[in-house]
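User: Hey, quick favor. My workstation is busy. Could you predict this chain's structure for me?
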Amino acid sequence: MIRRTSCLLGAIIFLSFLSKVWALTPPPYPEGKLNGLQIAEQVYAVSHGLLVRNAMSKQHGKDVAVLVNRAPLERRKNGRRPVVNTFETYGNSHPQNPELDSMQMAIIKSGKAKGTGILFISYADKSRPGVMSLWLPALRKIRRINEPSYEDTWVGTNLTYGELVLRKPEDEIHELLREDVFQDCLLAMELGPKELNRYTRRLPGPQCGHKGKPVYVVKSTTKFENWWYDYHISEIDKKTFAIYRTVYYKDGKKIKTITIDWQSLGQDDPRIQYPRYIYAITHKSGIDSMVYVPRSTVLLNQDMPDEFWSEDTLKKFGKR
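Assistant: No problem, here it is.
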């Protein structure tokens, strides 16, 4: 149970502006010609919520955020349905307590883990590891564990904590390959009739609305030795610095593709976007995952005290 719910938190954190931030000052909107590292720093600010005070994805009527995971192709027997969880998230990127860096909370709303609550607190002191608290409704107990490692993956999915939460621009060497125009529709999860339920029927199909947008094409090479990938190539919107597609390579072969349908939140700063969906597929095994966050569930900069992000709140929500 702990492993499954902590893995789920990784996706939730990334998709609702709840990713761990590193006590950075949000960079100003850039001017002039940029290099690879400068582009990567802007991407980090967009995807890690540095441009907003807090954000949440909260169920709105029938609309709720959904995470869908499918097994490898060889294990998908006829009629086997994906694993589906719905969730709410609450993130605070600017706590009042100067010792804290960020506070993130997630509540699982459906499935076998329904009522499970997850609270992750990171500290301004980078040498101090973050702490994750889990409310397990079946046991009526709080369990506390340290933050995961970069290479840890979620059970049954194809994403790592490094990709979703922990990786920083300085962990890679970034090279601007060229400026281009985005040519394709974004991939999305395609489900058969027997794989559908009341939640997965709402999943969006491939997004073609970003075709024709100017993008930076950036190659990012890992600094870690003997890593699971050698480099990845990302196509990044030149105006909003949102990544539309990232392709990972190992030994010259394409191993994984991630697409993200970033959408505007109507703010003055065009970089304030939210990921309507993220889809990831591992090419050799066919494992794929998708998270969908309806726009109606997203709220920004709410007037909420730091005390809201607490174990008491986890217990309260878990008793619903």
